[in-house]
Amino acid sequence: MSLYFDSNATTQVHPRVVDAMMPYLTGLWHNPSSGYRAGREVKAAIEKAREQVASLIGANPEEIVFTGCGTESNSMVIKSLAREIGRKSSKVVVSEIEHSAVLRPTEAMAAVGFDVEKVGVHEDGRLDLDQFSEAVDSSKPGFASLMWANNETGVVQPIAEAAEAAKAAGWWVHTDAIQAVGKVPVRVDQVAVDFLSISGHKFHATKGVGALFIRRDTPFEPMIRGGGQESGHRSGTENVPYLVGLGEAAAIMQEEAENGGLDRVAALRDRLETGLGERLNRVEFNGSREHRTGNVAHVSFPGKVAAEMLPQLDAAGLQCSAGSACMTGKNQPSHVQKAMGFSDEKAFSSLRLSLSIFTTEAEVDEAIEILANVLG
Predict the structure, then answer these.
(1) In the chain, N or C: fewer CB atoms in 10 Å?
(2) Domain 3-12+260-375 matches domain 15-256 at the CATH topology level
(3) What is the pLDDT of residue 85?
(4) Cα dihedral sign for 336, 341, 346, 352?
(5) How far apart are CA 63 and CA 250, in angstroms?
(6) Are residues 8 and 295 in contact, defined by beta-carbon separation less than 8 angstroms?
(7) What pLDDT score does 350 carry?
(8) What confidence score (pLDDT) does residue 327 get?
């Protein structure tokens, strides 16, 4: 069986999540909008899940809207904010390292006349706050969309400082926290963001379910209209088993954070990096050493090519990636790494090794051995 070191692409569904979902795939399959007892029971399960997700990020339950995925959450916010600020005399600021789920929608806005500016990052992958502050224009209505943690490098962004600068200008602030929730502390009661996107399959729920935090009294234009589910923010009959599973995953990750589970993952990441440094002569570790999620090692192997390394590692029993899963098979350097100043050669020689709460010491040691044998 292959070793799995690609948890930023997707995570193993937790057995507790599967167990929580099963009753809503079998006996309690009813429509939560129905007025009879079974429907009310199903509706109560959704509200429990909403409370669990809200608790994980320090929100109020009524501020959580369930969605189909993180990409949908991002698009819902961006389209709503585009309508809110209007096309004329407004401005949008994003960073150069955003996920395509933010870059593509804002590029589409630029194509129809919105003023969209991309701001850079430092060599360590952290947002250039000075450049960001200069880009924010208090004389115009606008919004900023900035990721909380980068999907390729794991670098955690100065989202609190950036949000403070944007809010001082009277702007709305959205954060794509898809790679942060469940990996580092994410608290909307401490950081002044108006919107926050979540994806369940990044922290041991299933694919096909996400959530969106919308701060109370913040204007929002629904992208999907219909029966008025999710307090009118996203219509459509709820995918009850998946929502219940998302809630259970949120509860699990809160337990992990409180009981030292995330620190254990970070220690394993450090063990991996130390082992690679000892076993390989040519290896470079990328991104901020201080500000990063505990589960990602972003590593360059000078003289190697990721497109050649990956199938060799896969054959040897190690699954990892060269960056975002969305970019697999695309023969171009990562826009994230280029923004950090990487040469094409370095960008093409980089791998992302991402761990989860299921990763063990034995697996880390075996991964080091495979990487040393294949790349040494």
Answers:
(1) N
(2) no
(3) 97
(4) negative
(5) 15
(6) yes
(7) 97
(8) 47
- Strand-strand pairing, 296-300 and 284-285: antiparallel
pLDDT, position 376: 84
Beta bridge mates, 155:
292
CA–CA dist 151, 101 (Å, integer): 12
* Closest to 197 (Cα-Cα) out of 216, 172, 174: 174
pLDDT score, position 244: 98
Query: In this structure, what token pair is assigned to residue 221?
Result: 């234009």
Domain boundaries, the chain: 3-12+260-375, 15-256
Enumerate the active-site residues. 326
pLDDT at 326: 47
DSSP 24: G
CB 98 within 8 A of CB 151: no
The count of residues in the chain is 376
As a CATH number, domain 3-12+260-375 is 3.90.1150.10
Quick one: 48 exposed, middle or buried, by C-beta within 10 A (0-12, 13-18, 19+)?
middle
What average pLDDT values come out for the chain (376 residues) when binned by 10 residues? 95 98 96 92 97 98 98 98 96 98 98 97 98 97 98 98 98 98 98 98 98 97 94 95 98 98 98 97 96 98 96 98 61 92 96 98 98 94
- If you write DSSP's letter for every residue of 242-291 in order, what string do you get? HHHHHHHHHHHHHHHHHTTHHHHHHHHHHHHHHHHHHH-SS-EE-S-SSS
- In angstroms, rounded to a whole number, what is the distance separating the alpha carbons of residues 338 and 348? 10
CATH code at 15-256: 3.40.640.10
Contact status, residue 93 vs residue 132, Cβ threshold 8 Å: yes
Per-residue model confidence (pLDDT) at position 324: 55
Place of tokens 């972003």: 298
